[in-house]
Design goal:
Chain A: GO terms for molecular function: polyamine binding. The complex is a heterodimer. Chain A folds into two domains: 2-130 and 259-310, 3-Layer(aba) Sandwich (D-Maltodextrin-Binding Protein, domain 2); 131-258 and 328-351, 3-Layer(aba) Sandwich (D-Maltodextrin-Binding Protein, domain 2), CATH 3.40.190.10. Chain A contains 14 helices and 15 strands. Chain A has helices at 2-16, 36-46, 57-66, 83-89, 107-116, 166-175, 187-203, 215-223, 234-243, 272-282, 285-295, 310-319, 322-326, 338-351, and strands at residues 24-29, 49-54, 74-75, 92-93, 118-119, 122-123, 126-138, 160-162, 208-211, 229-233, 247-250, 257-263, 265-266, 298-299, 329-330. Classes of the chains: A alpha/beta, B mainly alpha. The interface between A and B is medium-sized, with 30 and 28 residues.
Chain lengths: 353, 288
């Protein structure tokens, strides 16, 4: 009998040994945003079990909308896709900034995200990482590709790949010398501009090899030389540069598109404590640097410089000169209805022959 | 009612309960929800009101119905090609192969379906891509000098669809041909019939129910496929299911997506009904 009690006691003790043993933490994020090493470290530190679901902006919103904000404790949408979605579907809960160690963040970036994700009196997100969309070019096989227009240029026929998603439309609009962000306020003007962009992309259909949907698959076809010019995220180009010096990320002449991905807490998150713990954990300089070293995305955390690999810092200075940084077009919050306009045009482009 | 029949009917309902639960909870209730959703649209004020606008949109906007027609047409082509390939295979397995080998052949047919569709499609992509296995050998053998892109066209996509739905044609054909009396075929030959006339007058009429049920399954599977057209068809292959996905995910317009879902259900049922009428069959006979 005594033995049994002792055994039971030991079992209880072993369960309570780490603070949150047995509690799960559900993270809805992008591929690469939760490196295994960091998950293991976080689990060891706090005792939570981390469950990660990979997604993208559109699917994140759809998933949370379907459950009215349940099922996940933390999501990582881009900062421009939060306020209008929140107004319409209320899928997030206000961020409690007192639970965030704000000293960990780059102040200007934290403030920008706070401002851009504000709905009424609350803000809904803190920044996690940032980067740009631009061109990944195999300079040996496709010299002279310096702007988005290369994507529709006869010169690179059959060697071009891009996503059939809204950034491509916006990039092409910039390449045509227009500023689509300035037209966010007037849907009719925006529609006119986007119609023109769609016509260009339909005309250029024989040039594109495929519309990529999976980042790894794109990198694979760039490695094999099947694709020599692609529109993609900067970190992909830098990853390839480490393997092949001919391939690199190029900030296009009409401006790279700058995005910031965030942390936002779904409305019906069960374990907000874990969510805040994860944010404060992954933004610690050494952890943020580990993420940047591995995935090459730039982090929104401060004090990471001393932990960064030299190659990672070199990437940035190689691809971005002083004035290309000033030329980055940062996504402003997306107003409602714009997505429907773009959705229809994207269908039209894909259906065209 | 005697105690026994009472017990029996209780047992009947007990066994039926999972089926009713399944149908009700997972099919009927969600579909009612979708139907309601499809009949609502945003007015100019941004409020949701009852409207048939979502359905009208399908007929008004050429991209949508053209995509549907394309999807349906390619599904029909897929079904016909699958039937033409499967028919001799099924006949061989059911009638020509020895009893011992028959099981082995069926297993061989089943084997690829033990891995998921995604893996099989990726397998095809590895074979056919520009830097893929097939191009490698063609280059090595000197048949071609520059690699050919074999992915991302309609022919490849149809091949993929045929490959992934073949089993669903072969299995009903085998089972229906097994019941064909060999002496009928022999009699046909004795009376001077050739291969073609025997196939046309004896085998096909006998196999009709199997052909129809196989065709229905393959047609529906192709029409509702998402993976194969998307991955193998590439840039030119907008499939109707993808448009539903886009409405839900990219445009956040669930109401439109729901309407498309219902239109897919209705129109595909209509096509099947039409097919049954043309071949003078009834659904009851095909299923039995």
């Amino acid at each position: 009998m005594k033995k049994a009690i002792l055994l039971a006691l030991m079992m209880v003790l072993s369960f309570t040994f780490s603070a949150h043993a047995g509690e799960t933490f559900n993270l809805l994020t992008w591929k690469g945003y939760a490196p295994t090493e960091l998950i293991k470290k976080f689990e060891a530190e706090t005792g939570y079990t981390v469950k990660v679901t990979y997604s993208n902006n559109e699917e994140m919103i759809a998933k949370l909308r379907a459950t009215r904000g349940a099922g996940f404790d933390l999501a990582q949408p881009s900062q421009d896709r939060i306020s209008s979605v929140q107004k319409k579907y209320s899928i997030y809960q206000p961020m409690d900034y007192s639970q965030i160690k704000s000293a960990l963040f780059i102040p200007s970036m934290l403030n920008a995200v706070k401002r851009n994700t504000a709905v009424e009196n609350n803000s809904y997100a803190v920044p996690f990482c940032w980067g740009t969309s631009g061109l990944i070019v195999n300079t040996a096989k496709a010299p002279g590709a310096t702007d988005y227009t290369a994507l529709i240029s006869e010169k690179y026929k059959g060697r071009v790949s891009y996503r059939l998603k809204r950034p491509t439309l916006i990039a092409m609009a910039f390449a045509m010398g227009k500023d689509p962000f300035a037209l966010y306020g007037s849907p009719t003007e925006y529609k006119k501009l986007m119609n023109k962009v769609a016509d260009e992309l339909i005309k250029a259909k024989p040039i594109v090899k495929n519309y990529w949907t999976n980042g790894d698959a794109l990198l694979q076809s760039m490695r094999s030389g099947e694709v020599t010019v692609a529109m993609a995220w900067d970190n992909g180009g830098w990853k390839l540069h480490a393997e092949n010096k001919d391939i690199d990320f190029i900030a296009p002449a009409s401006g790279a598109l700058g995005w910031i991905d965030t942390f936002a807490i779904p409305a019906k998150a069960k374990n907000t404590k874990a969510a805040y713990a994860w944010i404060n954990f992954i933004m610690r300089p050494e952890n943020a640097a580990m993420f940047t070293n591995k995935e090459k995305y730039a982090t929104a955390a401060v004090g990471v410089a001393k932990f960064l690999d030299k190659a990672v810092a070199d990437n940035f200075s190689r691809s971005f000169s002083e004035d290309t940084i000033d030329n980055i077009k940062w996504y402003p919050p997306v107003p409602a209805h714009i997505e429907a306009i773009e959705g229809k045009l994207l269908d039209k482009i894909k259906a065209a022959n | 009612m005697t105690a026994f029949t009472k017990k029996k009917s209780l047992l009947f309902w007990l066994f039926l309960a999972p089926v009713i639960g399944w149908l009700g909870l997972l099919i009927i209730i969600p579909h009612i929800d979708l139907l309601i959703m499809s009949l609502k649209a945003e007015n100019d004020m941004g409020d949701l009101v009852w409207s048939t606008a979502n359905y009208m949109e399908f007929f008004r906007e050429p991209i949508y119905w053209v995509t549907f027609v394309r999807t349906a047409l390619y599904s029909v082509i897929t079904t016909v090609v699958t039937l033409m390939i499967s028919f001799p295979i099924a006949f061989y397995i059911a009638k020509v192969a020895s009893n011992k080998l028959r099981g082995a052949y069926v297993i061989l047919l089943l084997l690829p379906f033990w891995v998921s569709e995604l893996v099989r499609v990726y397998g095809w992509m590895i074979l056919l891509r520009e830097s893929g296995v097939l191009n490698f050998f063609l280059l090595k053998l000197g048949i071609i000098t520059t690699p050919i892109e074999m992915l991302y066209n309609d022919a490849t996509m149809i091949m993929g669809l045929v490959y992934s739905s073949m089993l669903f044609m072969v299995v009903p054909l085998i089972s229906v041909m097994e019941s064909l009396d060999d002496s009928l075929v022999e009699a046909s030959f004795d009376l001077g019939g050739g291969v073609i006339s025997t196939t046309w007058n004896i085998i096909i009429p006998h196999a009709k129910p199997g052909i129809t049920s196989g065709c229905i399954v393959v047609f529906m599977l192709s029409l509702g496929n998402y993976l194969t057209p998307n991955l193998m068809g590439g840039k030119n292959s907008l499939w109707f299911t993808e448009q539903i996905y886009n409405q839900f995910i990219a445009s956040f317009n669930w109401n439109q997506g729901a309407a498309f879902g219902f239109l897919l259900l209705l129109l595909s049922s209509l096509i099947i009904w039409f097919g049954l009428k043309v071949t003078k069959q009834t659904l009851g006979k095909v299923v039995a």
